[in-house]
Design a protein that fits this description.
Number of helices: 10
Oligomer: single chain
Shape: extended
Order of helices and strands: HHHHHHHHEEEHEEEH
Distance between the termini: 72 Å
Radius of gyration: 32 Å
Length: 357
């Protein structure tokens, strides 16, 4: 009878997605994934003998799990309680003690399995089993942050959209700097690696002050434009911007950088326009290799028109068209920088208010 094709098993509503997730999961028990595969094959009308061959179990096992699913659904696929001595340690007691801070007499801030076991009068293996079953990990911690920026969502959307869908015929650069790099020189030349010997260097060194590394990463190609400066001021940052402008002549540039004070100095405004959606206040942690504010530069060396100087709506994607025109800054550009395409702070505020409606 087992060799004949079995009727298709009727899977209850919503159980199919759960069974599929058990098959794809890397953390679910192997036995539970095997039972999910049996039920899914049975739902397709596969014969019991064929299911047993594909899954690697016996035919009675296939029939047993089919019947258990028909009777109890997903709950029938779980392991039944094992026979044996009842638990003498209350799991709720272990969990409650774990979630409470240790007494001050122990001089620690988090429980260990041995310390909690000694405190409760149980074995540390018992505590470890309870922690595993409830997913409790007292030795780990994470971080979180709440943003206070009222326009955080719009600004993050603009920056992320610039990464995912950059404007046509434009270059997106991620700019950042590493300051206070110690310039150290060893007192003797380094000894190279040899057979049986590792690379060696002297333990003492001579200090030559500190250096600052400026770098601009081209998102699309991974090309890096970098410079080392002796100090970390807006003067050095402007010099680096000139270097970036020379590295990408006659190309529209979009810079993604943080809201460091050096980036927001008024002397940077004549050559590099901060858009209304830049620099979120108290942003969440940025993705690796990126930061949260954005600036852009004009694409040519001619004076920009009113249309070119208009910022995009703060709720639009990077490919959206310009909104309304704004006035340009009348400050004189610094030597070597590209002409301005920037709006005054009042105009930017007005533009931001307009886009809200």
């Amino acid at each position: 009878m087992a060799n004949r094709p079995a009727p298709g098993l009727v899977v209850r509503e919503g159980d199919g997605e759960v069974l599929e997730s058990w098959l794809r999961s890397t953390t679910v028990a192997a036995g539970l994934a095997r039972r999910a595969r049996i039920v899914l094959l049975a739902a397709q009308g596969v014969a019991n003998t064929r299911i047993a061959q594909e899954v690697g179990v016996s035919v009675p096992t296939v029939i047993s799990w089919r019947r258990r699913y028909e009777a109890r659904g997903l709950a029938g696929l779980e392991d039944a309680p094992r026979s044996g001595r009842p638990r003498r340690v209350s799991r709720e007691r272990v969990v409650a003690a774990t979630l409470a801070p240790p007494p001050k007499k122990y001089g620690v801030t988090h429980w260990s399995s041995r310390l909690l076991g000694s405190h409760l009068g149980v074995g540390n293996a018992t505590v470890a089993r309870v922690w595993r079953s409830y997913g409790i990990q007292p030795w780990r911690h994470g971080t979180f942050k709440y943003s206070t920026g009222p326009e955080l969502v719009a600004k993050v959307t603009d920056v992320v959209g610039l990464y995912l869908a950059p404007p046509d015929n434009a270059v997106v650069l991620c700019v950042d700097e590493k300051s206070q790099i110690q310039a150290l020189e060893r007192t003797a030349p380094m000894l190279p690696m040899q057979p049986g010997k590792i690379e060696r260097r002297t333990h003492d060194y001579t200090r030559h002050g500190t250096s600052t590394l400026f770098a601009a990463l081209e998102i699309a190609t991974g090309r890096v434009t970098a410079a080392c400066k002796p100090r970390h001021r807006h003067t050095e940052f402007l010099a680096f911007l000139r270097q970036v402008a020379r590295a990408y002549p006659d190309v529209e540039l979009h810079l993604v950088m943080d809201n460091y004070a050096t980036h927001k100095t008024p002397r940077c405004a004549p050559g590099w326009r901060p858009t209304p959606e830049s620099t979120p206040t108290s942003p969440p942690p940025a993705p690796p290799g990126s930061t949260w504010s954005r600036s852009s530069s004009p694409s040519s060396t001619a004076q920009p028109s009113a249309e070119a100087s208009s910022p995009r709506s703060r709720t639009s994607t990077p490919r959206s068209a310009p909104s309304s025109t704004t006035g340009t800054n009348a400050a004189t550009p610094l030597p070597g920088l590209r002409p301005p395409r920037t709006s005054s702070p009042n105009a930017n505020q007005k533009q931001t208010n307009n886009t809200r409606h």
